[in-house]
């Protein structure tokens, strides 16, 4: 998998995405990174091996961790 830690940008400049049937607001910068990943234009890392395909899974902290829950973020 590929992990995106925090994608910086104006936290008030958001767009909505759908995740498992739920609408989630994310920053425009993170949306751009997700679109680049989906479009296969992100630079490939040597750690991905010789495959021409990007990993199928992506972890984005801003989506996978409840950013409004300090205890969850710290965990």
TrEMBL record:
InterPro entries, A to Z: HET, HetReg/Transcr_Mod
Organism: Tothia fuscella
Pfam families hit by this protein: HET
Domain of life: Eukaryota
Name of this protein: Heterokaryon incompatibility domain-containing protein
Domain Heterokaryon incompatibility stretches: 1-75
